[in-house]
Write a structure and sequence with these properties.
Mean pLDDT: 88
Order of helices and strands: EHHEHEHEHEHEEEHEHEHHHHEEH
Radius of gyration: 19 Å
Low-confidence stretches: 1-38
CATH class: Alpha Beta
Helix content: 25-40%
CATH superfamily: NAD(P)-binding Rossmann-like Domain
Shape: globular
């Protein structure tokens, strides 16, 4: 367990906030039942609180900031939280580098964003595309102030492999692991670089072992929810280990849970589940601007300049379950990821 969480404070969280935090539960086949009593959320000691809430938007958290000298790269920026983040950050003057699976889609999104928004092609299933994206950025900029690892997939179909690895793990974790590796130099050239890894409370769907290192192809007992949950746990563990390896540098790494949001991710669910959720999702789910707030806050907040290795929800730090802050599991994940990606590192 990471020493970062040795001291904690406990503060109340409302029932509505608790429901909004339960992204995994909302997506599960059975809806979550919440008790009427207030739940508790645990805060790590010594990390600044923001004053923002689950209702705050990406535009709220960057209001008043001057980001005109910042380069911020957002993966998966053509829709949903990535697009909303780009709008908010570009609106405060940042140069936003926005990736899409095709250059055309990224260009269309940049036109929607306005400001200084620059398209990049990135296919996280393809190491060659990841290396080309990183190289293209480094040809055009010398510093990267924030890298928001926002892209991700949630596929509710048959098991699919990327090479010898299950698709969710390959795209959601390994793709970003490789991208961060090749963008460390411009991150370290920034006055204070930041890596923000977008996770999910779906980590609770991960297998009991956390990461099944002997089953990364998903051949044993595959279910889409378990595969997605394992990849989201990997996101948080990667960020934790990265923070340890970046100690002594001006670069920080934190992971975030955006909360259950009304985005295109729901298109992967069966139509009957979409139909069932449609009448109530306005009450239970965050809007895309609200869900994008936490990643924008962690990427830009002046008070977080030296904050690294933590987990954020609703624009504030929380102490996640022990598995999410398991330092030994995080180190093993890092070593395994290096081995799988060795030809591209």
């Amino acid at each position: 367990m990471s020493a970062l969480y040795a001291n904690v404070d406990v503060v109340p969280i409302s029932r509505r906030q608790f429901v909004q935090l339960s992204a995994a539960g909302l997506a599960a086949p059975s809806m979550v039942a919440c008790s009427s009593a207030d739940e508790l959320v645990i805060r790590p000691d010594g990390v600044p609180l923001s004053g923002f809430t689950a209702e705050s938007t990406a535009f709220d958290v960057v209001a008043g900031l001057d980001l005109k000298d910042r380069n911020i790269l957002i993966t998966g920026g053509t829709s949903g939280l990535g697009l909303e983040s780009a709008r908010a950050l570009a609106g405060r003057g940042a140069t936003v580098w926005l990736t899409g699976r095709s250059l055309e889609r990224a260009q269309i999104a940049c036109r929607q964003v306005g400001g200084d928004c620059r398209p990049l092609q990135l296919e996280l299933e393809q190491p060659e595309s990841i290396l080309a994206c990183a190289q293209r950025f480094k040809q055009m900029a010398t510093q990267l102030d924030a890298l928001v690892c926002n892209a991700g997939i949630m596929v509710l179909g048959e098991r699919r492999l990327v090479g010898a690895v299950e698709q969710h793990f390959a795209v959601n974790h390994l793709g970003h692991f490789l991208l961060v590796h090749h963008l460390l130099a411009p991150l370290q050239s920034a006055p204070q670089g930041r890596v923000v890894v977008v996770g999910s409370s779906a980590y609770k769907w991960a297998p009991t072992a956390g990461i099944e290192f002997d089953n990364l192809d998903g051949a044993r007992d595959y279910t889409p929810n378990k595969a997605y949950g394992q990849s989201k746990l990997a996101n948080a563990l990667f960020s934790l280990e990265l923070s340890q390896r970046l100690q002594g540098t001006p670069v920080t790494s934190n992971s975030i849970n955006p909360g259950a949001a009304d985005t295109e991710l729901w298109r992967h669910y069966p139509r009957w589940q979409q139909w069932l959720l449609a009448p109530v999702k306005g009450f239970l789910l965050k809007t895309a601007p609200q869900a994008a707030a936490t990643q924008c806050y962690v990427a830009t907040a002046p008070t977080l300049a030296s904050t690294s290795g933590y987990y954020f929800e609703d624009c504030n730090p929380v102490v996640p379950p022990a598995q999410v802050r398991d330092a030994e599991l995080a180190a093993q994940l890092w070593a395994t990821s290096e081995r799988l990606l060795q030809p591209y590192l």
